[in-house]
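so the lab meeting is tmrw and i was supposed to have these ready like two days ago... anyway. pasting both below. for each one the top line is the aa sequence and the line under it is the structure tokens. i havent really looked at them closely yet so no promises
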Amino acid sequence: MSINEFGGGQQEQSDVLVVTTNDVPGYRVERVIGEVFGLTVRSRNVGSQIGAGLKSLIGGELKGLTKTLVETRNQAMERLVEQARARGANAILAFRFDVTEAADLGTEVCAYGTAVVIAPQQ
């Protein structure tokens, strides 16, 4: 597996900047739009679960589950950016992920933050 399969985040040329900070150096917030989120729920793959169970006996990384979680987080982030863009934002501040179990059926991943319009400081 390549390093790209274990990482995530934003594409370089995105029109909506996503940051974990409360501000962006060199920019001012012109308008706060409000909270936005992207949500996805993934069911457990029986094959991955069996493989993970066996791997847990001998130790080591659960690469199949890692790859699935990266894909799930990326999907949640894409939905977050789509919602912010649709509401007129060009940035999302205080970006976070929340991961929970969904009724023993799968994993819920929520990407959330504050949609804003930013402009360069003058």
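ok protien two:
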Amino acid sequence: MKNMPCLLIIDMQKGMSWPQAGQRNNPNAEQDIAELLAHWRVHHAPIVHVRHLSLEPESLFWPEQDGALFQDVFQPLSHEMVIDKSVPDAFTHSNLAVWLQEKGIKDLVVVGVSTNNSVESTVRTAGNLGFNTYVVQEACFAFAKADFNGYERSADEVHAMSLANLDGEYATVISQDSAFTLLSSAVAQSQ
């Protein structure tokens, strides 16, 4: 597991696929994430599943409600790490950083939802903690949102701005093909 990049899958829960979640971009993100997950599993590379459990009873992600459950295709295997969070950042109030350090993991490949919320928050912390962090642009998605001035922004605009916030400062934004190459290179070096 040492020197292998860890796939960090953020908030791929049933509620994220429901219409109440809002208008989103990257409609093929689930398929892309599932392909990455399958590839990581084939190579026995480390995987962390992050699950948001809200503190608000009205939330889609209130614990033990259907919306908080992992989507079927993203059910963690028994040996895969699961991190529960109640704030956007997966590192806050969790043992994620310690677990990664104990495993000797230096590289993170981050996918999931939503780009401008939990993905961005987690990636900022990962970068600040010194992890080599990669965000797979087509394996993340965002929802439409009004900006601070009240102008409605499409999900594509929100996604693109969030990636721009991260790239080159906290992380490197990459394609799915580049993520496959990153893992293949690590596997080749470990043999």
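from a quick look at the 2nd one: The helical segments are 29-42, 96-102, 115-128, 155-166, 176-190. The chain has five helices and eight strands. will dig more after coffe
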